[in-house]
Amino acid sequence: MSYPQVAAFDLDYTVWPCFCDTHLNPPFKPVASKNGEVRTLVDSHGYEISFYKDVPRILEDLKAHDVKIVSASRTWAPDIARDLLRGFKVEYNGKIVPLITLFDSLQWGEKSKVIHITLGIKELFGKKADIKDYKSCLFDDETRNRDVERYGVKYVYVKDPEKGTTWEIYQKYLNGN
Ligand SMILES: [Mg+2]
């Protein structure tokens, strides 16, 4: 298995099954589970949103292998994305933490994924850091973002909007398939 130095994740239909800028209306209320995790939030219209179930396990495994994690999203509603990532709570190293704490760099807004990842790498490794010098990948559901491969970033296609980023997709990527 071969781990990258940087793993970037799109948000909508990669981490959760909706467009957070058009489908959701804050504020959100948590639905707490017995162990204190919050895997579901309810918006002000009663719409329930949960992250894809394998996402925390994947992020935890990446962090256990010293991989830096970048959130790369073109969302028009960074406030809503932040509310969700702060609202979701997951068990990590025996503690309950907001999902947002598992991300090392948040790169959001109307820019290309190449720019998101470039800015993330510069934030994490210094101004002179070059995207081409780091082993990286992008999990993303939109094939137009495959253009990151021109910069040496491995594009990992998240093709099923029902399942999102799964452990299976992640393992295939690590095993070079
Ligand atoms: Mg997406």
From TrEMBL:
Coiled coil: none annotated. GO terms for molecular function: acid phosphatase activity. InterPro entries: HAD-like_sf, HAD_sf, HAD_SF_ppase_IIIC, MDP_1_eu_arc. It comes from the Eukaryota. It holds the Pfam family Acid_PPase. NCBIfam families: HAD-SF-IIIC, MDP-1. This is LANO_0F04434g1_1. It comes from Lachancea nothofagi CBS 11611.
